[in-house]
Amino acid sequence: MSLKKIAELTGTSVSTVSRVLNHPEHRCNATGLEEKIWAAASSIQYVPNKVARELRLGCTSEKTPFIVDIFLTRFDSMDQDLFFKELFQYVKDDLLKNGCVLGEILHAVDILNLDSQTDDSSFIPFKNTGNSSKTGTSTITIKENTGLMILGKCPSKLIPILKKRYAYIAGIDRNPTDYAYDEVICNGVTAAEKAVNYLITLGHRNIAYIGDCTYEARYIGYYQTLLNHKLPLSHTNVHPTKQTAKEGYQAMLTILKQEERPSAIFCANDSTALGVLKALKEHKKKGYLPAIISIDNIEASQNSTPMLTTIDIPKKEMSHLALTLLLDRKNKHHTEHVRLELPCRLIERESCYHL
User: Fold this and answer.
1) What's the order of all strands across the beta sheet hosting 67-72?
2) Would you say residue 135 has pLDDT above 50?
3) Phi and psi dihedrals of 269, rounded to 5?
4) Distance of alpha carbon 241 from alpha carbon 150, whole angstroms
5) The predicted structure's pLDDT at residue 107
6) Helical H runs in the chain?
7) What is the rounded CA–CA span in Å between residue 55 and residue 99?
8) Residues facing 146 on adjacent strands
9) What is the pLDDT, as a whole number, of residue 19?
């Protein structure tokens, strides 16, 4: 029985495996367990009950269900970015509803960086099995009946290689590509502008940024908004991080040591902001409580103290539309690269105040 095999591979119960695979809205208390279960299911090519039942009854229009691989570009685990972890929950739900099967879950560490001395050198999109032998890009073959959903900002030099591997690609991110593949975005520049403009309307002028600064839309939006309001950009107010709670915590400790501290802080994502709030709680500075705003509107942002003011990114709709684009391209209903941009909205809570 597949469920029993998956339970053995992941060290959990059959009932837990069943809930995770057949009810995507289910959440496990154990960190990383859901991801382990889905990875194990992929390794034995598990077919969800609904899809298997339709296959037995001959109800599906295809002999085998469509497989969707997931590439998480920024982190080695979804637990490091709660936005993509929540987004993944919606992706799994949409796959189940559409009779599709989750394939491989690729992370940054699964991508092989080949020898740069050879003409064929590049990144190869497949799981790193530990084999140290070099493989040229000419050996890449297309994955049949399989699409790829890219979660996050994809390195531009990887895109041509991904296209050799996958005929159907759709991405979800806040940083648009140059129409390199189908994508659903909620523009990070727009979201950042909305966040920083809100702080400015509250009277804040000395505004810090904590987040990625490498070709990052949210940093561009922060910088442009300051320029638009003729506010100086102080390099002491820019704190580059990998956008994790841990690095947000460390960045806040650095700010607390400064003689002139910002009255407001814009964090590139909620995970970073949660780390900032934790640092403020554990290392109180008498008379200093900056306004905090971020982007994503993850579930944890509603449970923080104070509750986090944030810019909502419509994760459920982005997931639905990304899979729609994958299936639409597979069915040859469109050939041009499509970009769907969804709006973001301000969620006012307790972490911001009038100066």
Assistant:
1) 101-106, 67-72, 146-151, 168-173, 182-185, 339-341
2) no
3) -150, 170
4) 22
5) 79
6) 2-10, 14-22, 33-43, 49-57, 82-97, 159-165, 188-201, 217-228, 245-256, 270-282, 315-330
7) 10
8) 67
9) 80
The reported pLDDT for the residue numbered 113 is: 45
State the Cα–Cα distance between residues 70 and 87, nearest whole angstrom. Answer: 12
What's the alpha-carbon Rg for the chain, to the nearest Å?
22
Name the token pair of 114.
């080949």
- At 182, give phi and psi (nearest 5°): -60, 140
β-bridge partners, 339: 183
Q: Which residues contact 123 (CB under 8 A, 6 or more apart)?
A: 111, 112, 113, 114, 155, 157, 158, 161
Measured CA to CA, the distance from residue 85 to residue 298 in angstroms comes to: 9
pLDDT computed for residue 326 by the predictor: 97
**Number of helices and strands (H, E) in the chain?**
11, 14
Quote the DSSP letter at residue 282: H
pLDDT per residue as tens digits for the range 234-270: 999 999 999 999 999 999 999 999 999 999 999 999 9
